[in-house]
Amino acid sequence: MEVFGDGHRLFIQSMMSRGMMNISEVKEVISECGLDVETEFKDKVVKFVRLINQHIGPINLEIRKGLEEENGQPYYILANTAETSISRLSSTYSPNELELFKKLIESIVENEDGKIGSLAAMNLTDKLEKKIGKEEAENFFNRLEDDRWIRKNTNGKISLSVRSIVELDQYIKDVYPDYVKFCSLCTKLCLQGRGCENCGAKFHIRCSNVFFNKQGSNKTCPEPNCRAPWGQVVIH
Amino acid sequence: GKKKAQALKTDFLRFNAADFCDKVRIKVSNGISKKENYGLSHDDWVKLGRTITPFFRSTPVLNFMCGAFQRDVVPKKKRTV
Amino acid sequence: QTQGRFGVEISDPVEKEKRVNELVQYMLIMDQKKIPIKKRDINRVILKGQNRAFNGVMEEAAEKLLEVYGFKIIELQDKLKDSYILVNNLELNESQKKLINTNQKDNAEMGLVFVILGMIFMNQNVIHEDEMWHALKKLGIFQDDLHSTFGNVKNLIMKEFVRKGYLRTELNTSTDPPTNDIYWGQRAEHEITKRNMLSMVCDINETQPSDWTYQMQLVMQEDQGSQQ
Ligand SMILES: [Zn+2]
Ligand SMILES: [Zn+2]
Questions:
Q1: Closest-CA residue of chain A to B70
Q2: Which of A116, A167, A224, B23 lies at 20 to 30 Å from A31 by C-alpha?
Q3: Which chains touch C (3 or more CB pairs under 8 A)?
């Protein structure tokens, strides 16, 4: 049986400092922990992470796996799993900055394409009770990107990163039940993706790519009750 | 004890704080920042920090969003598709 | 009678376990600011008046922080008595250390912390405030100006670094007007060894550690102290 040791501690510390890691970063950390990553890597990671989760679970932390919506890349995320009076003592961001982040989530979730323009994001500051200056807001958005809570694409559009989506999964489902859509293929929360013109179902880009590749030339909507011919309509 | 005190007196290197800062500037900016008033750029400070931080036993800090803020009750609206 | 006062345990093991976990979480969250965590606040927030259980709960929380996270709880002394900091207990090699990232803001601030601690140590453990500001001009830092990276740099050094425990100031009344003498704070004493500090300084001013007799003596003393 695997024994909890310095390697696991290093992994936790590395996770704390980065928030999330892609597979090659996980590989790098685990190999620094003295594990041979060349054989049965998947199996080893699963065991490694499971053991860590047993140890950090009691303080409401969990390492979870998730896919980045835009490119389908897998990541491991260190997530806080409970909203308590102690967790609310967190001070990485000021209360007003957190209010702005909430407004950002709201407008991203309410937007059909799961993105918001940078100008629209700046205008969210008007909705705050306590005002935030434009420069201050811009610094905050940069910090959010630096800390990997949000992503900015080449057009300057802001979306929630896999870190936010994984950690805030339950929050978004609970607070915005009328807005959230779930991918018909993987059943997970879907903010950015493709939609079917016929039935309105939404799919992650990666999930639908996998599906269509299997289908061959006659593409139909992945939704079992629909199966309308797929018109390559993309909602964004 | 006494021998050490004598050794101290014969110490020929005197530390000068301003000279030290000058050398920090030259070392970190690779001599690019020549005029002392220019000091170090933002990137230089980050670079210096990155070089020396591994020698400190500082702990990485936890950063999270879930549970950092209170939930609002959002008025229910029907989506207009 | 102190035995009875401080030795009380929470009798229900489930209840105790819950408090221990809450304390571990609380310590990690409070460490975000790097300001020493007060016993008074732990009693208020975690033990909710069951102050007499403090030692028992703290002991187990310290064990968990060490066992699971590799963090050591240090109890501070003197004026900072009854407050605690976390330091990293993992012995990491160069490439392992690179796996722990810090953001730009923290990196920049640590750069400044290092320069000041270096000056204090090399200046035989104390520097006068005026002398520090004079020296920092060479790095583009002026006590009354806003700095592009550090903002209100006077506040950062004299208040924030002191609050975090990197620096300690003492008002020197022998000067007119009185000015501050600046020393290493208790966090600095626990986060950085004198040996490492000396070798980093020597790397910068291109000297050998053995060139600095006084500082080398302190390094030796520290080595002996840690062997005991
Ligand atoms: Zn999907
Ligand atoms: Zn359909």
A1: A88
A2: A167
A3: A, B
What is the count of structural domains for chain A?
3
CB contacts, 8 Å: B62 with chain A: 16, 61, 80, 90
Same domain, residue pair A138 and A202: no
CB contact under 8 A, A80 and B70: no
Does the CB of C86 have a partner CB in chain B at under 8 Å? yes
- Please say which residue of A132, A158, A175 terminates a domain: A175
Contact assessment for residue C164 and residue C187, using Cβ atoms and an 8 Å cutoff? yes
In the structure, how many helices (H) and strands (E) does chain B have?
3, 0
pLDDT of residue B37: 57
3-state secondary structure of A227: coil
In angstroms, the CA C13 to CA C17 distance is 6
Q: Which of C33, C109, C192, C203 is nearest to B50 (CA)?
A: C109
ipTM reported for the complex, 2 dp: 0.92
At C3, is the pLDDT very low, low, confident or very high (cuts 50, 70, 90)? very low
Residues A80 and A57 in one domain: yes
Beta bridge partners of C84: C37, C75
Nearest CA to A141 among A116, A165, A172? A116
Q: Are C167 and C182 in contact (CB under 8 A)?
A: yes
Does pLDDT of C6 surpass 70? no
The listed CATH number (1.20.210.10, 3.40.50.150, 3.60.140.10, 1.10.10.1200) that belongs to domain C2-92: 1.10.10.1200
Cα end-to-end span (Å), chain C: 32
Residue A66 in any domain: the answer is yes
Q: Which domain holds residue A150?
A: 91-175
- The pLDDT, as a whole number, for residue A39 is 86
Would you list the DSSP string of A54-72? Answer: HHHGGGTEEEEEEE-TTT-
pTM of the model: 0.91
Are A87 and B59 within 8 A, CB to CB?
A: no
**A135 and A159 inside one domain:** yes
Is A1 inside any structural domain? no
8 Å CB contact between A140 and A122: no
- Give me the CATH code for the C101-192 domain, please: 1.10.10.1210
